[in-house]
Specification:
The protein is of the alpha/beta class and 353 residues long. It folds into three domains: 104 residues, Conserved hypothetical protein from pyrococcus furiosus pfu- 392566-001, ParB domain (Alpha-Beta Complex); 112 residues; 52 residues, no CATH class. The protein has twelve helices and eight strands. The strands form two sheets. Strands 1-5-3-4-2 form a five-stranded mixed beta sheet, with helices on both faces. A three-stranded antiparallel beta sheet has the order 6-7-8, with no helix packed on it. The longest helix is centred in the N-terminal third of the chain and has 39 residues. The chain is elongated and about 130 Å long. Keywords: Coiled coil. One of its GO terms (biological process) is chromosome segregation.
């Protein structure tokens, strides 16, 4: 066996310098190094996940805050929007300003989104009935997919019914074209709604129109009395001007006035708002009072004439003391005698109702 040779190495400048710092206690093995590196990675991951959770919580709270304020908007398909929750304070008849709104939407789009809240199967409209009606009309007329969805602010659900009504009312109170009859109709519906804790018109008006002037609330109550007395006989209540509505409300104190006016409206069956207003003006002026027998003895020449549009055509009616004449382009002699007799009996029964 060869012998190992030992020889010296000369380092420049003398002996090699010792390493700085504490002397290592011992060398770590591969397993210890892997465990340490894994622990560091887990700490970093946990820290990152905590930061993500904190950011998600912040964003969630911010989303809820913005949603409560109605500042979260989305494009909602028209067919997913319902209008059942609230009775509207806008008439269901044709809105004369709807064409202007449609033209504005065509030109510049919808500058003020509607407001909806999410329900199980879609969305419930809170504010923006006219804007929704305009979008639906545009989509029906044009078939353009641009009008298939409407910009809508998503509000948080669960808001009290009274607050939802107040939002709708306060939005429309600033509009000059909303009539006293429309406001009165809403008060009546609110009082009749089982979901509210109000059961009379006075309290409904006070609650819904708290931001309106006292005189305006008084007018709304007067119109509500007229609408309640005439039930559903009015076809164009939104056309009634303020003075005429107040005059009719005063006439309600006359015994039998409401019954006589309902019968007159049923007989006239007005096809237009102006025709209905003509009947109402005459009723407010005369009271439709039945003259006593002593007044009829002289056979007054006073006569009432009117036109009535029915499915079969236009009927001209001339009524005077003791006589009623109905004229239209129809051969009444061809009608079965028993049917004619029943029609006359129904006519007289309606007058005496």
């Amino acid at each position: 066996m060869s012998k190992r040779r030992v020889f010296d190495i000369d380092f420049p400048g003398g002996e090699p310098a010792a390493p700085e710092g504490p002397e290592p206690q011992g060398r770590r093995g591969p397993m210890a190094a892997a465990i340490s590196e894994n622990a560091d990675a887990l700490r970093e991951r946990a820290s990152a996940e905590a930061a993500i959770r904190a950011e998600n919580d912040r964003l969630a709270h911010e989303h809820v805050r913005l949603k409560k304020a109605g500042l979260i908007t989305d494009l909602i398909p028209l067919e997913r929007i319902r209008t059942d929750k609230l009775t509207r304070d806008r008439s269901a008849t044709t809105d004369p300003e709807l064409e202007e709104l449609k033209a504005s939407i065509r030109a510049i789009g919808l500058s003020n989104p509607i407001r909806v809240e999410a329900v199980d199967d879609g969305y419930e409209l809170i504010q923006g009935f006219r804007r929704l009606a305009a979008y639906r009309a545009l989509h029906a007329e044009t078939g353009d997919d641009a009008y298939a969805c409407i910009p809508a602010a998503l509000v948080a659900g669960g808001e009290a019914l009274e607050a939802l009504y107040r939002r709708m009312v306060d939005e429309n109170l600033v509009r000059r074209d909303i009539s006293f009859a429309e406001m009165a109709q809403l008060a009546l519906a609110y009082a009749d709604d089982p979901g509210t804790d109000v059961d009379n018109v006075e309290d409904a008006v006070a609650r819904l129109y708290a931001s309106a002037a006292r005189q305006k609330r008084s007018y709304i109550r007067h119109f509500a009395s007229v609408l309640r007395a005439l039930e559903s006989r009015l076809r164009f209540p939104e056309a009634i001007p303020r003075k005429l509505g107040l005059d009719l409300e005063k006439r309600l104190s006359d015994p039998g006035f409401a019954t006589r006016l309902k019968a007159r409206l049923a007989a006239a069956f007005p096809a237009t708002a102006e025709q209905e207003l003509e009947v109402l003006r005459y009723a407010a002026k005369t009271g439709l009072a039945t003259r006593p027998a002593s007044a009829r003895a002289g056979r007054s020449a006073a006569k009432t004439t009117l036109r009535c549009t029915v499915p079969a055509g236009t009927v001209r009616c001339a009524a005077r003391d003791g006589k009623v004449e109905l004229t239209m382009a129809r051969d009444f002699s061809s009608i079965d005698r028993h049917r004619l007799e029943a029609a006359v009996a129904a006519f007289m029964a309606q007058l005496d109702d």
